[in-house]
Amino acid sequence: MSSESPTVDDYFEASDEYDHDDKSEIPAEKLAELEAEISALQSD
Amino acid sequence: MQRRKFMIGVGSLAAGSAAAMGTGAFTSVTASRDVDVEVASDASAYLRLEGAGGPNAPYVTDDGSSGTLGITLDPSNSTAAGGEGVNPDALTRIDDLFVIENQGTQSVDVSIAKSGDNSGLVCFFANDAQGASDPYDESNGSTARIDGSGNDVTLSPGESVYVSLQIDTRGEGVGDGDELLDTVVVEAVA
Amino acid sequence: MERRKFVLSLGALAGGGAAVGTGAFSSVGASRDVTIDVAGDASAYLGIKPHSGPNGQYADTTSSDALALDFSGSNSNIGNGIAGGEGVNANALTTFANVFTVENQGTQDIDLEVTPLAFIETDGAPFPTSLLLVLIVPAAFSITLSPGQSQDYHVVALSLESDGEPDVSLQDEMRITAEEA
């Protein structure tokens, strides 16, 4: 797998139902916090 | 004498997606599993945040039983006796305002991050129990500051603390209408 | 009459195993044991189990012994592993590390995939919309496991409630697929 931490976008792409509209409701700063959490989880 | 023909051979016995005979390996398994996530009101969520009741309950505008905890010390929540905020040039203490309880599965370190125009003037103290004789004395072993850099309190599952507020406006030059605190983030980290 | 004897003798051999000789027979009826059991998820060939750590408590089992992720008041571990919580906090980002594990308890390499990895529910209201986003976080999106190898999964939940009240919840399914590699 790539050495970069996945983005929230990557998670939607990997999911069967990818609804662009829904994801656009998430504020940008929340996306950044999410991606920080994902990165922390995967570095353990 | 024609009996039912019974085929014996590798791979012909697959029942559903269970193991095939011979190589002893499955070719594929597909399993659908439930994912159920509820948002709970603060009083029943994994990090319980709930008004502690008692005489300071009027400052708690949402006690967390149906939504998220909210504390309001401003004109929109004036007291029955007409108070609209804390005093300037004063030390104000509000004991046992709300409870934080760990209703999850692992020990967490709990801290509070503040934001507001003068958030440094507001301090949050956690105590093991309600009604402590001095909830602001960090030397007594059952009181701890939980806001500010490096301050946190560890709660194992089922453990709780009562949180008291201390607001010190002495000599700070803040007066009528000045905002001290706007929001806090309660953070719990395993 | 000759033929009938032939059939009878073949029948006697069939009870013990393969027929030999000319290989011609009129029929064989051979009963063999075929045993296939259903195992609970935790002990099946594709092992799907709660993580051994504390957050494994958020993985419950259904009445048919299948794993279910349950971050709600119906999780049977509330009171003995989950200290009373019945859901995630509103207007909060909650991370659950190591909730469940998938282990290859078969005999050959498998390609493992879980989908979807992202679930989102909204209240459909115009801005500000309330929403609940749940991510299932594996170490890698697709992975090949040899027998005995496993992959751990974490869960991250983001709740945004415009009025602070819990309105949005999620009941969905994830599909775990393992194919021989």
Description:
The complex is a heterotrimer of chains A (44), B (190) and C (181). By secondary structure, chain A is mainly alpha-helical. Chain A has helices at 8-13, 20-24, 28-42. Chain B has 190 residues and is mainly beta. Helices cover 0% and strands 37% of the residues of chain B. In chain B, the strands form 3 sheets. A 5-stranded antiparallel sheet of chain B has the order 3-6-11-8-9, with no helix packed on it. The relative contact order of chain B is 0.18. Chain C has 181 residues and is mainly beta. Chain C has one helix spanning 2-14, and strands at 46-50, 59-61, 67-71, 88-89, 92-104, 110-115, 118-122, 131-138, 142-145, 150-160, 170-180. In chain C, strand 2 and strand 3 form a beta hairpin. In chain C, 41% of the residues are buried. Chains B and C meet through strand 1, strand 2 and strand 3 of B and strand 3, strand 4, strand 5, strand 8 and strand 11 of C.
Quick take:
Chain B contains no helices and twelve strands. Chain B is mainly beta and about 190 residues long.
User: Structural class given helices, strands, pairing of chain C?
Assistant: mainly beta
Radius of gyration of chain C, in angstroms, nearest whole number = 26 Å
Order of strands, main sheet of chain B, comes to 3-6-11-8-9
Q: How much strand of chain B?
A: 35-45%
**Oligomer state of the chains in this structure:** heterotrimer
Largest sheet of chain B: 5 strands, antiparallel
Number of helices of chain C: 1
Instruction: Give me the strand/helix succession of chain C.
Output: HEEEEEEEEEEE
Hey, which two chains have the biggest interface?
A: B-C, 52 and 72 residues
Count the strands of chain C?
A: 11
Spell out the helices and strands of chain B N to C.
Answer: EEEEEEEEEEEE
Summarize the helices and strands and which ones pair or pack:
The complex is a heterotrimer of chains A (44), B (190) and C (181).
Chain A: H1 8-13, H2 20-24, H3 28-42
Chain B: E1 28-37, E2 39-40, E3 47-51, E4 60-62, E5 70-71, E6 91-102, E7 108-115, E8 122-127, E9 143-145, E10 153-155, E11 160-168, E12 183-189
Antiparallel strand pairs in B: 3-6, 4-5, 6-11, 7-10, 7-12, 8-9, 8-11
Chain C: H1 2-14, E1 46-50, E2 59-61, E3 67-71, E4 88-89, E5 92-104, E6 110-115, E7 118-122, E8 131-138, E9 142-145, E10 150-160, E11 170-180
Antiparallel strand pairs in C: 1-5, 2-3, 5-10, 6-9, 6-11, 7-8, 8-10
